[in-house]
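BUG: 3D viewer hangs when loading the predicted structure for this chain

Environment: internal workstation, default settings.
Expected: structure renders.
Actual: progress bar stalls at 90%.

Input used:
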Amino acid sequence: MAQLLQATQASLGSWVGSSVVHLGDHNVPNALTFIDKYCQVPLILNPVISVCLDLPAIAAKDKEMKRYMESAFGSVGGAIDAILVDFFR
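Structure tokens produced before the viewer hung:
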């Protein structure tokens, strides 16, 4: 683990945050909770990312959908911005 951390820090050039790898403290009662906590992140973010990445292709294929996005959000980029703002709010 220490070698992996050292290689990661060296490849990035700078490091923000703790370099301590822990599998349990007062915030995380055990290793399984720790692992589960961080495994949830991609499950939550991947659908949002997929939609944002696919909207330009959908707009290119479906002219009605493009017209809707332009009238409701100003542009396809505006629709993506609205999704991200709503998600992170």
